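batch job 7 of whatever, protein = Acyl-coenzyme A oxidase
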Amino acid sequence: MKANRPKRDVHPDLARERLKCNFNIEEVTNIIDGGKDKTLERKKIEDIALNNGACLDEIPDECLSIKERYENAIRKSCIYSNIVRNEMLEITGMENFESPVLRRTADAFFKDISPFMLHLGMFVPTLIGQSTPEQMAEWLPKALDMKIIGAYAQTELGHGTFIRGLETTATYDPDKEEFVLHSPTITSYKWWAGGLGKTANHCVVMAQLYTQGECHGTHLFIVQIRDLDTHMPLPGIKVGEIGPRMGFSSADNGFLGFNSFRIPRQNMLMKHAKVEKDGCYVKSAKHGKLTYGTMVFIRVTLVSEMSFNLSKAATIAIRYSAVRRQTELRPNEPEPQILDYPTQQHKLFICIATAHAFQLTSKWLWDTFQAVMADVRKGNVDALPELHALSSCLKAVSTSDALSHIEQCRFACGGHGYMLSSNLPFIYSFVAATRTYEGDYTVLLLQTARFLVKAWEQAESGNNVTPTVAYLNRTANTKRVVWDNTHEGIIQSFQAIAAGKIGQCVRSIRDRIKSGMDYEDAWLMTTVQLVAAAEAHCRAVLVNTYWNEMIRLTKSSSANVKTVMHQLAVLYLMYWALEKTGDLLKYSSVSKQDLDDLQRRYEELLAALRPNAVSLVDAFDLRDEILHSSLGSYDGCVYERLMEEAQKSPLNAEPVNPSFHKYIKPLMQGKL
Ligand SMILES: CCCCCCCCCC/C=C\CCCC(=O)SCCNC(=O)CCNC(=O)[C@H](O)C(C)(C)COP(=O)(O)OP(=O)(O)OC[C@H]1O[C@@H](n2cnc3c(N)ncnc32)[C@H](O)[C@@H]1OP(=O)(O)O
Ligand SMILES: Cc1cc2nc3c(=O)[nH]c(=O)nc-3n(C[C@H](O)[C@H](O)[C@H](O)COP(=O)(O)OP(=O)(O)OC[C@H]3O[C@@H](n4cnc5c(N)ncnc54)[C@H](O)[C@@H]3O)c2cc1C
């Protein structure tokens, strides 16, 4: 079903906004995309995927039943996969199946989520990261060609965070050279895996490996769960969907139980550890946590995913705010555009800056990830703890910040932001899940904290520490940093806050141990502070990386692009400095006067950015098909679209609903 979209003239308010722009939008788009060639490639791919209108729906997703929504999502997933397989991968190259462009175009097809998302998002990366070359040759081509469709089944009903506590067992039987998968309890049922409920015919399963009578901890196995022809669950498999949830409505998140289900020995993913034919277990020579690799990979990709989602929300809210007028400031004067209110600018401009901060940081994180993985392939795992610490905190903070900024975008759109047709509730509920999945916020920050405490102890004893915590070598023994309101000064203050908080955690742990606690209890009692310290470290990394990358990427930009990119980065620094005034007062010499000055400069910066606001979101270059929003379309025809979407409500299909005759009328007549 293709929907025809009427072409409309651009709303005069938006047209006027665009005339005010003083920088080259395309140059900024190129920076966000990672270069002019990347922008051209993206546009070419978007044209292929979206120009034929296959992504559009006649009936909005939200007006469909759960079953219809799933079926429509499958229909479109198949169309989309075919386009990816036949046309898009030819341009990106097969090896770039995880290209952000594919994610971006997928969003035009799915207002919610594709049931195939986890196939490409986690199943395929697990095959790549965890298989031997022979296994890769066997499974990967089939997976990329959609001959098999997979899910990632790790979490169980009883355990998500604590992977070592998973209960599914895989017991090796050397006589038959098979593993026997079993779910011994109700809590051992796999739970949550996207695409598992109704779509996947294969999945990667994490299970406790038993061989020669010994448990060797969790390992990954590839398991066929459904017949490829009939799609019926195989004997010994109990599989289904987990039921309605806050978002992810079309992802058929599933449950899965095994009743002594047998798989060949070759189905254990054996890149890092293996079981020989006779049942002998050979441990990973490199690092015990390499089986967690897919999680690290997704945590890394989520930072750019957050930038993308935030840029969508910011585009919707800023275009709407340029069109929406509300409240007379002075009698008989026209009502201002709500974007003219500094409070509105305060809600929204930080969203643009944060989308840039996450995008530039995500590219840097991706390069770091690639470099560490290249080392791991050569047998050097020295940088793995730092990568784990970094990807954990950046995943936690970027998802959490994106979520609260997206909610601000919804607030900024008043009542209309609450409409599903605005798309803001969908974006919000999608991003709300990211704070939990792939490692809960608190849990991941505590992982980073473990690394930071060790780094602190090294720095304290005069040893050099790894690059992302190098600031500890400078600041570990400093009481308070001297406040300086330049960007360098603000970045150093964030580093001083992080160092101060980590140091305080170390002292708290030591004091508690001195007073008789064992290390575990002392750590536990300090976890509220440890989470705050890891967050502070992450903010220090973010401000530093964003600033450095912005300078590097704008070196050859035109003067006005340099200025506007610089303004956004300064806004980001100031916003967070003002959010953290308590910490600044504690760990720097900042005075009340300095903070008042900072507040004034921040407000001036909002005013300076105001004329470019609409063009800055135009620079995200998000097509209307991707935005799916009655409030955010390029033409700004908000009211027409709201009315048009309202007409599609199933309740408007008939002038009188049958419930009137069945219930209301009898009630009115006293006949009920
Ligand atoms: C086309 C591409 C598209 C991309 C699109 C992106 C969008 C995708 C949409 C996807 C939608 C949904 C996906 C959802 C998928 C999932 O949620 S899958 C399930 C994910 N589950 C989790 O993340 C669980 C979180 N828990 C953990 O990670 C671990 O259990 C935890 C780290 C908390 C602890 O693990 P333990 O095994 O108990 O480890 P410990 O004994 O505590 O630690 C020992 C040391 O090992 C270090 N460690 C832990 N993990 C790692 C790692 N990954 N790498 C390196 N090191 C690690 C840990 O810090 C300890 O170190 P220390 O002893 O302190 O030195
Ligand atoms: C939409 C969605 C999609 C998902 N997709 C998949 C998938 O495809 N495959 C898959 O395997 N899984 C998937 N998951 C599961 C997801 O990875 C887990 O839900 C997540 O890792 C959190 O684990 P949990 O649910 O066990 O939470 P819990 O660990 O039970 O957390 C509950 C609370 O306890 C706190 N807590 C837990 N442990 C600690 C601790 N050590 N210290 C301090 N506080 C702690 C947490 O901070 C949290 O506040 C998905 C989840 C969602 C919501």
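notes: The longest helix spans residues 342-377.
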